[in-house]
Amino acid sequence: MTNLQTARQTETVFQTENLNIYYGNFLAVRDVNIAIPKNSITAFIGPSGCGKSTVLRCFNRLNDLIKTFHIDGKVYYRDQDLYAPDIDAVEVRRQIGMVFQKPNPFPKSVYDNIAFGPRLLGYKGDMDELVEGALKRAALWDDVKDKLSALGTDLSGGQQQRLCIARAVAVQPDVILMDEPCAALDPISTLKVEDLLQELKENYTIVIVTHNMQQASRASDRTAFYNVEANAKGQRTGFIVEYDRTEVIFQSPKHAATQEYVSGRFG
C-alpha cells in the first residue's frame, strides 16, 4: 500500500465504481458507487438483507473467505484497487480493522487481548505503552488499568466492545469498520461507544453498519441508505438509494423511500 499523491486521494479513503457483488450466480448487491471521506464516520442504514454488511466486508476483503463470493466493478482504497492480483489481503485487514456486532474478546487477559495483534506483527516497541495507549484511545483505561491481568471475557458487554475497539486500534490501522457494534449493548454503553467514535475519527476513518436510526443521525457525518428488491424468482438484491450528508438523509432526503425508512414507516 502506498501513500496518496493527490489532493483527491488524500480526501477519499474508499471509492467504489459500479460495484456488483455476487455469491455464485446470485447478485447480492448491485451498482454501488460511493466515496468514503477521510477522518469521518459514514453510516450504512437500511432494512435487513439489503447488503450493508456485504459491502462493508468488501472494504477489508473479509468476503474472500466465502468460496462463491466474487465481484465486478472496482473497490479502491487510497487509489489502489483492493482486488488487484498483487494486493495482500492479510495486509489489507491490518490496515482496515473490523469490529463485529457481538463483542468477541479473546479468552485471554485484557493486556494480552491488546498485545496479541502487535506481537503477531513483530512489534518491537514498548508493549506496555502501546497497550495503555490503545486502551486510552478506546476510553477503557480508567476501567481496567488495575485489572489488566483479568480475562477480557469477564468485562461487561460495553467494556468488552470497547476492548475489541482497542484491540483493533492497537495494530495502528488506517480505517475501522464496524458491523452493528452496539446491537448487543444497553443504551448507556451504546452512548459511550458513540462518544468514543467522535474521538476516534480524529485519527481514523470509520464506516459503521447500524439498524439504529437515532445512532446514525447522532454519530455519523454521512449516511448511505440501502434498500432491497426481489426478482421474479424471489431473489433479493440490495442497492444504494441515496448517499449524502447525514443531515440531508434525515431531514431532506431526495427519495420517498429514504423518507419512509428514516421516519420508521418501513424497515
Q: What can you tell me about this protein's structure?
A:
With 267 residues, the protein is of the alpha/beta class. It has a domain at 8-101 and 174-262: P-loop containing nucleotide triphosphate hydrolases (Rossmann fold, 3-Layer(aba) Sandwich), CATH 3.40.50.300. Helices cover 35% and strands 27% of the residues. The protein contains 11 helices and 10 strands. It has helices at 7-11, 52-58, 89-95, 110-120, 127-137, 141-144, 157-170, 187-200, 213-219, 246-251, 256-262; strands at 12-23, 26-37, 41-45, 69-77, 80-81, 96-99, 175-179, 205-209, 222-230, 236-245. The strands form 2 sheets. A 6-stranded mixed sheet has the order 6-7-8-3-9-10, sandwiched between helices. Helix 8 (187-200) links the parallel strand 7 (175-179) and strand 8. The N and C termini lie far apart (39 Å).
